[in-house]
Specification:
With 279 residues, the chain is an alpha+beta fold. It has four helices and 20 strands. The protein has two domains: 97 residues, Immunoglobulin-like (Sandwich); 170 residues, Glucose Permease (Domain IIA), CATH 2.70.70. The structure holds zinc ion (ZN).
């Protein structure tokens, strides 16, 4: 009994003075959000846990973390928990309200060979997906990003995030990025600072680049004509990493741009407005 009281007291003391706030207040599946934590004790390691994923942070007084509600997250109440190292119960938590959101439908009629995959193609697609999933699941806690994610190309958004796609009447997976139409050869820039963690030629994505921005944040650039970076290279925000093309499965020259935050698929457009650049 006294052990229990001691444990509770310890947890209360650890959590004392720590506060967490979520911005913005109105969130839905696909929303990135900022978690501001105040009162972290210097020299202590903490774990932030949300939607079954954890991110480790070192106590430095206060910190702003970027998290996200996955496109597939059900509406309702969820919780962000903060753990101190070595303690199994959260020292503090904050609730997150996930509102329902009706993403629009998109109906496309495309030639049959464009929609149906041969067993060989399917095998390739699954292999490529697994490779990217392994990249996104890797634990990379160091922050490389800074405030102000930028639009990676000058162009027009033709397909927004989250649309439910129907190809020749059949429902397919939703659109997990934004398509930005631009002329072939238009420069594509890194949305933020980071390290290139993948370059390659994929069945759907065509010539592709993935950048690791640290703390579980990744950006994806698909359908490039060519890329000018290599795996392991450090890139700065707005640095040119390649050029718009129409490689892979695409109907015209466009950049497919996607963002993952702690393995959650979020709307890049919301990220631009959430993280304004502080001049
Ligand atoms: Zn796309």
């Amino acid at each position: 009994m006294s052990f229990l009281i001691g444990t509770i007291l310890f947890i209360l003391l650890q959590g004392h003075g720590i506060s967490m706030t979520v911005t913005p207040a109105g969130l839905h599946p696909g929303s990135p959000f900022m978690l501001s934590i105040q009162g972290l004790v210097t020299g202590t390691t903490y774990n932030v846990e949300f939607d079954k994923r954890a991110l480790s942070v070192s106590g430095t007084g206060s910190t702003d973390l970027l998290l996200g509600i996955d496109l597939g997250h059900p509406p309702g109440t969820d919780q962000v928990n903060l753990y101190a190292q070595g303690i199994t119960m959260p020292i503090t938590f904050t609730t997150v309200q996930v509102q329902g959101y009706a993403y629009p439908n998109q109906y496309l009629k495309l030639p049959k060979h464009f929609v149906e995959l041969t067993p060989f193609q399917l095998k390739r697609v699954l292999k490529e997906q697994a490779k990217l999933d392994r990249i996104f699941a890797a634990d990379k806690t160091r922050p490389l990003w800074q405030m102000g994610f930028i639009m990676p190309v000058n162009g027009i958004i033709t397909t927004p995030f989250g649309v439910k796609r129907f190809l020749n009447g059949e429902q397919r997976s939703p659109h997990t990025g934004i398509d930005i139409a631009a002329g072939i050869g238009t420069p594509v820039m890194a949305t933020n600072n980071g390290i290139v963690c993948f370059t390659g030629d994929m069945f759907f994505g065509g010539k592709s680049v993935v950048i690791d921005h640290g703390q579980g944040i990744y950006s994806m650039y698909f359908h490039l004509r060519n890329y000018t970076v290599k795996k392991g290279m450090r890139v700065k925000k707005s640095q040119v990493i390649g050029y718009v093309g129409m490689t892979g499965r695409v109907t015209g020259p466009a950049l497919h741009f996607g963002i993952r935050v702690m393995d959650s698929r979020v709307d890049p457009q919301l990220l631009f407005s959430l993280t304004p650049k502080i001049q």
